[in-house]
Amino acid sequence: MSDQQVVRPAPISGFSEWLPEVRRVELHWLDRIRETFERYGFANIETPAVESLDVLTAKGETSQEVYTLRRLQADPKDGSDAKLGLHFDLTVPFARYVAQHFNELDFPFKRYQMQRVWRGERPQEGRFREFTQCDIDVINVDDVPLHFDAEIPRIIHEVLTRLGLPPWSLNINNRKVLQGFYEGLGIEDPIAVIRIADKMDKVGAEGVGELLRQAGLSAEQAGAVLDLARIRGGDAGVVDEIGKLGVESPLLSEGLDELGFVMASLADLPSGSVVADLSIARGLDYYTGTVYEGKFLDWPGYGSICSGGRYENLAGSFIRRKLPGIGLSIGLTRIFAKLLAEGLIETGPKSPTAVLVAIPSQERRGESIATAAALRARGINTEVYHQASNLKKQLKYAEKKGIPFVWFPPFEDGKAHEVKDMATGAQTEADPGTWSA
Amino acid sequence: MSDQQVVRPAPISGFSEWLPEVRRVELHWLDRIRETFERYGFANIETPAVESLDVLTAKGETSQEVYTLRRLQADPKDGSDAKLGLHFDLTVPFARYVAQHFNELDFPFKRYQMQRVWRGERPQEGRFREFTQCDIDVINVDDVPLHFDAEIPRIIHEVLTRLGLPPWSLNINNRKVLQGFYEGLGIEDPIAVIRIADKMDKVGAEGVGELLRQAGLSAEQAGAVLDLARIRGGDAGVVDEIGKLGVESPLLSEGLDELGFVMASLADLPSGSVVADLSIARGLDYYTGTVYEGKFLDWPGYGSICSGGRYENLAGSFIRRKLPGIGLSIGLTRIFAKLLAEGLIETGPKSPTAVLVAIPSQERRGESIATAAALRARGINTEVYHQASNLKKQLKYAEKKGIPFVWFPPFEDGKAHEVKDMATGAQTEADPGTWSA
Q: Interface pTM (ipTM) of the complex?
């Protein structure tokens, strides 16, 4: 083992990994998310980490962040690998999947997908090069009922609640309301104004006002745009508030009906958790109706913890059918890493073991193995200590790993089994066929 | 939607994905594997998909298959991405992980890891460019007790049994037996002979005999090497059989003690499932004692379904400590894809939903949503139909997706709920607060 042979490993910026006790918490999170998604009848799929570059760049977005693949010792003249890249989200692969398997799927198709994605971005707080997303989407042929605009945020609300996060709100808006309102104001290019309004987080109301006037809006128009963006409320009452601004258009009416339906449907949820927020714009051009964005209340600058919305034609780049959809994506790594950094992830033991069976002596090793088998057969996670060491050493091992019980098979025939509760120190007789924690 | 805009998606060779009903089975497999690993006290970790090339090539093996990463529009002069590659197995990342977090882990460290890996190989039957492996390893400082040589195959036996696979055997050998036997025969380079013996699957006994004579072995030596390779048996009796060949060396004795211990420890497992097979060599140089290889009995040419063994110093490339280990890796994708191709994966419904709650009319939509909430609160996976269509259409949807029960909330106040069993057609009164399938 000379110095030269040792490659000292170092973390790679933007790629995170956790110690076993932290991973254990993350795994429980993933279990709960999956359970909630399935509780609402969503089916799991996974897609390869790799897509063809044609597919990844079909929408033209974030393409500079795509990681392409090349074999280490590939023939430089062989370009076959160069056509492959790692997916940068789960929406594009989902659209490709639906188009590719169109004839084998049943619609409306409700799926969830929990996978890693990769982006070659400059790492910074909340931005990773590899991270896990948990996506839920409904896609249908020709149209998607408004039912789902209300059901999707209800599911995400349940997920975020079950994770026990610090205070957050799931903010809802509707692009038709924005676009219809701007049209009612006589603005010629409402989409350009949506893009400007989306900068509220970055430049504030004053900055947005400035940009709007630069874009040719009158002071009155810009003022009304800002008035709309200030409206925020936990129920369908926001619709009346918007009405009081005195702007009208057919698209605005349609949008207000939709937003009112969604907020009324969610009226039973705890106050402040799901909020209509007219400042939310979600810059992406493919959203056409309801849009969602979740934020931590205590860290408003941290970026969204979930986001999504309704798109008129998700898979249009891949199939000549109209396939609208609606979905939401939870930024699992972004949420988890923030809580970990803030010291808010409470870790438990370093192993899933409930019982460590001690080995009293080499001769009675078989007894320990049989005891462990009996406990495992009853669903109890059980380790046998790996050698007949002195008992102090065996207890020390259980303590280090946070194993809550140590089991002592009899040291001689005819004696009873005993089990020690490591938290209280109490040691009592026990039967491997009936004992429970 | 002009023709030019549509990128028709096609499968990429070597990358597989499944329909929802198939993924559902794969997910159940993964759940069962994880449950069994945890039942024995192994802790989960995950490592990034990406490692530095220094780490990936530290052992020098399979390096030509490594996929390296490059951002799509990276500055050609910026070489930072070129130092990253996708991991090609889970053993190298595990070794790096242990070295990197050495001071924060407790030993013996028992971990499982279930992740995708990538290899830029030519795809063929049983060989994929992206596949999932399920690895279980124990690593310790300075030495790993022989206990684990018997426990690891017991765990894998339990996993493979629970998956309900077509007939297979888990074959065990010990490199010390091979090397010690060859030394006892007076062979000068036993490692070279191990590499030749490893070709038994490919060239048969005659071919191996030929190669041995080319390597300078006498006819008698080559004959003895082949005699040893023919020995196969389900219990510690193989040790006596090997003894009868009349070859002796200190290393052989040590190897026979270990092999005898492992086989005796596993004597309670069903006959033929775990077999000592002296023809197994596992070419990889880092194995030093017990080696494992699982095979389908009906498809002996298909390649191993799991493999592993004991290595004297796993993380030696990354840390100046001696860290021996022992582990086994299940080739999940290889097994699953084979069974799927053979028509042996029995798929169930296309969704996890147990109950579809119908919507009798738009006015009574709230009743349907409340009914679904009551069922979900009791842990029942429940969908509400997405609009107030005619009931035939709603039943048709349940039928298509394989949803076993359709729930009818009352069409008017005061009437009872009813539930229809889609398999039998029976429709009975039910209470959402107490009903179960």
A: 0.95
